[in-house]
Amino acid sequence: MDETDEKILKNLLVDARQSARQLALKLGMSTVTVLSRIKKLEKEKIIHGYTAIIDHEKIGYSMTAIIEIIAKNDKVMDIEEEIAKFENVCGVYDITGSTDTIIIAKFKERKELSKFVKELATIPNVENTITHVVLNTAKEDFRLS
């Protein structure tokens, strides 16, 4: 990956809907070059797909929870794989420190969060969970710019 690939990625992060032609004009290169580089980035799994950035609150997901998981018996990876299957889970992170895993998940109501936390406790080798409810989101944007 070189500087040109980085420029392409940064532009796609801002607007993935722009055409290769528009991107080529903006970057001062041919459309064929841009297309071939994008295909290469897709093939190398640097680009996994294209998606819309939505306002979760406007579609009813008004609660964000950050949940710490403490595992037992060195089964962290198994637990993380299981948690990653849940539909409302946005992120699963294997971390350092006294907690093994951090989860970020979205919920429409408190009952959903309660049910989710109780389901986590039934996953084999989950020793403990610590749930934090987000009160205010100052920034939520995983795009690098």
Describe the structure.
- This protein has 145 residues and is of the alpha+beta class.
- The protein folds into 2 domains: 3-43, Orthogonal Bundle (Arc Repressor Mutant, subunit A), CATH 1.10.10.10; 56-133, Alpha-Beta Plaits (2-Layer Sandwich), CATH 3.30.70.920.
- 37% of the residues lie in helices and 21% in strands.
- It has 5 helices and 4 strands.
- The chain has helices spanning 3-14, 20-27, 31-43, 76-83, 110-122, and strands at 63-71, 89-94, 101-107, 126-133.
- The chain has a 4-stranded antiparallel sheet, with helices on one face.
- Strand 2 and strand 3 (101-107) form a beta hairpin.
- Helix 2 crosses helix 3 (31-43).
- The radius of gyration is 19 Å and the shape is elongated.
- The model has no long low-confidence stretch (mean pLDDT 94).
- Residues 1-62 form the HTH asnC-type domain.
- It holds the Pfam family AsnC_trans_reg.
- Keywords: DNA-binding, Transcription, Transcription regulation.
Tell me the helix content: 25-40%
The outline comes out as elongated
CATH architecture of the largest domain: 2-Layer Sandwich
Largest sheet: 4 strands, antiparallel
| Rg, Å, rounded | 19 Å
The CATH homologous superfamily of the largest domain is called: Lrp/AsnC effector binding domain/regulation of amino acid metabolism (RAM) domain
Beta-strand percentage range: 15-25%
Topology order in helix (H) and strand (E) letters: HHHEHEEHE
Q: Whole-Å distance between the termini?
A: 17 Å
Provide the residue-averaged pLDDT: 94
Number of helices: 5
Q: Extract low-pLDDT stretches.
A: none
Largest beta sheet: strand ordering:
2-3-1-4
Total tally of structural domains? 2
CATH class term of the largest domain? Alpha Beta
